[in-house]
Amino acid sequence: MRALFIVNPQATTTTPRSRDVLVGAIAREMELDVAQTEYRDHARELARQAADAGYELVISLGGDGTVNEVVNGLLSTPEHLERPSFAALPGGSANVFVRALGQPTDPIEATGAMLEAARNGEDRSVGLGRLRSDEDDRYFTFCAGFGWDADVVHEVDRLRRSGRRASPGLYISVALKMFLRGDANLPSLRIDAPGRETVQDLYFALVTNTTPWTYAGSVPVQPTPRSRFGLGLDLFALTQMRTARTAQLLRRMLSHRGVPPSGAGYVSWHDQSAITITSRTPRAFQIDGEYLGHRKRVNLESIPKALRIIG
Q: For the DAGKc domain, which residue ranges apply (predicted)?
């Protein structure tokens, strides 16, 4: 098997020495080329070119941002070429996609599991979400957020550029500061889906392709615990931003069962083929933990069996 290993050298939890160990292990079992990313969306470009270069497998080492870039590159493979399979190795601070797949969180263990799956011919197809708007046409692997969480992602990105290290604690502290300042108290969102009554005056909306939404350290955060790669999209949206109720919902998200399908202060939809979110004013928007800018409308749809995964 011929494979392309796309490595983000800025990945949070890997070192040059550990990357060399992974390269050595993989190269012993398949024909391997290594490419390091040098700028934003470089991984997307490399993955887009993989099929034309004859690669059967693309492997990534990085966080969820690197995964998202590689996935979007693979999904833009020309129709006349066979799209390579994909294997993601954890190298970021959260690694939500890798963990949602049930893969090991240690890069060396994850590499061993991937190589064993490749030897045994084990693969599986997973569904993805697709974002369409006036500004975008791209896929997401686990979540898209409109409002509060995207504001948090935007602020954490700013802090990272100034030298702060991304961590679960940083995300939590930024989210709390924004909530207490009232930054999330803007009920501007409206949500539509086929066969559903329109819901409006929402404060925050999250669309997921799997569970969990993210992790607080080792604890999964589950606003949509029924969400799965093999189903459509799930929705969680806040209808109120009262401190006591929001705190209760956060505790539910951190529990083993997650947030129930229905309750006070929120809307929850399961297994939707498409969801449209609009806002009366531009609001922050993110996919897979990457801030995309402020938007007034996004169209999200479920793409079943979009990607073949090794492992």
A: 1-135
